[in-house]
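Sanity check. The docking grid for zinc ion depends on where the pocket ends up, so I'm generating a full predicted complex first rather than guessing from homology. Inputs follow.
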Amino acid sequence: MQTGQIIRALSGFYDVQSEHKIYRTRARGNFRKRKITPLVGDFVEFESESQTESGYILEILERKNEMIRPPVANIDQAVVIVSAVEPDFSLNLLDRFLIYLESLNIQGLVYLTKTDMISDEKYQAIKQSLDYYEKVGYPIFAPRTAFTPEIIQAIEDTFPDKTTVFTGQTGAGKSTLLNHIDPKLNLATAEISQSLNRGKHTTRHIELIPLNDGLVGDTPGFSSLGILNVTSETLVSRYPEFREIGQDCKFRTCQHVMEPKCAVKAAVDAGEIMQSRYTNYLQFRAELKDIRPVYKKSK
Ligand code: ZN
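Predicted complex below; grid placement will be based on this.
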């Protein structure tokens, strides 16, 4: 028996990478009975006589996390691509995405594109905002000149021993960035969209590509984002700086809204917490509270 990680799922076969080799496997029949579908990213126990014949997945190890679209498990980090312009730079959208990543316990990294299309003044303003994000725990890649070898190298240096996905705003230049890292990343996506056109499949696929001792995958872009995987009560825990500073609030369950002696509100007033982080928090909280359960009329 060997252990490995599924990097590709195609027509009932699962390609498993183990010690830098790829094995083609199938899932054992009893998975279906147990209603378990292996996912790309799953760590598995499998047996395989050779790399030329297909082996069998025996067991799927417990998942650290699971993204739904596309279905992929055990993601360690996500590079979020945001655009300086066209589409406009949006801290609101960035916060939404980081909240989602926090809920899945995925480390967020932020890559700023199209910086060559903005003035120095605007660049400095965006950079100043992003410096705040770096300070609270999200590594930032905001090169003044696009796609230099140094910045590509800096991204690749984060890959070893991790599963990384790229995600971002539609039109922010994700494919261009991926092309600079490894054109194979884009090819995997292109093949998928073709088969989507032919067969009207709505399922999103993902393939993980071995790169720099890690696995890397592309995910579809998004243009807007609801607030995913969170309730108005749990939202507060998706902010690393609120978690830390909130320990000094008078009430342990403080939501940092109307409560007295709130350390988070004090930190916002003192400029230690970025105003937009807090304003967006209040906005998301209101959005989440507006979501009411839908009751279907009985016939
Ligand atoms: Zn508070």
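Relevant for the grid: The radius of gyration is 21 Å.
Also worth noting: Residues 246, 249, 254, 256, 259, 262-264 surround zinc ion (CB under 6 Å).
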